[in-house]
Specification:
Two copies of one chain form a homodimer. By secondary structure, chain A is mainly α. Chain A has seven helices and two strands, in the order H-H-H-E-E-H-H-H-H. The first copy, chain A, has a two-stranded antiparallel ribbon with strand order 1-2. The longest helix of chain A is centred in the last third of the chain and has 18 residues.
Chain lengths: ~150, ~150
């Protein structure tokens, strides 16, 4: 149900969280996350506009998180690029109804549950859990994994 | 986050649940739900294929639910036309990973929560709740509401 853009944004920030303190080039992020390079540029731009990610040019530069990974949640990232909607008005456009009907109330409740689930998980938790495994299902030898992914395209 | 198809399917079955026992023509469903007529045909076809809706031709015919509204949940309807995914394999396609990384585990947990929320609500609950208000935010005078909706197209 998450959009492709939200999925990619989460991969990108997870990659940055795993290397917190070390700026990464877009090429390196693309390699580790298997995000198409052009698409990654757009995603990083959106994350920059929402002040989740910053970039520095020059030697030693690259992209990095602007906040410590423990202060950013999955919800923050999703809301920056493809917000989970709330249903606040009747989608059928009937003006006389100021409160939601039971169907759209039920859908809105479900959306709120997914928002809550995403708000509970920080990027630090993604990086630090499961016995040290990185957040992106990556191989122990990322170069090999990257090569394998590229071959499939 | 729900697809347009899922939203329309829910409107259609809610409309049928509100009139359980009385087959409705596609034109009548379209009028009450504000679903474009061609789109509605495709949605009803999918609901028929999943044995949620049946149809009878001839006088007094039309579309109707095949089960009592208390036996069908929002999840049943959504899964029939645009299933909420489970993430069972690494989306990055890395073959060596048989368990999910923390990021995709967290996304899958959220998907499971939305599935649970939808599984808790039956069509009967949509029809019967909130002081008798119908499931589709409809006016007390549906003919007027329908005319108003048509004007907007």
């Amino acid at each position: 149900m998450l959009s492709q853009t939200a999925e990619y944004a989460l991969r990108a920030v997870s990659c940055l969280a795993a290397e917190a303190g070390t700026p990464l080039s877009a090429d390196r992020i693309a390699e580790r996350t298997a995000i198409p390079r052009r698409y990654l540029t757009r995603v990083l731009q959106a994350l920059r506009e929402h002040r989740l990610v910053g970039s520095r040019s020059g030697p030693g530069g690259g992209y990095e998180l602007l906040e410590p990974p423990g202060l950013t949640t999955i919800l923050d990232v999703v809301d920056a690029v493809a917000p989970i909607p709330r249903i606040e008005r009747c989608p059928l456009g009937i003006e006389s109804h100021r409160s939601l009907c039971p169907l759209h109330s039920a859908i809105d409740v479900a959306y709120e549950k997914i928002r809550s689930a995403f708000a509970e998980v920080t990027l630090a938790q993604l990086v630090g859990s499961k016995g040290g495994r990185g957040p992106l299902c990556e191989e122990r030898t990322p170069r090999t994994a990257g090569a394998r992914l590229r071959k499939r395209k």
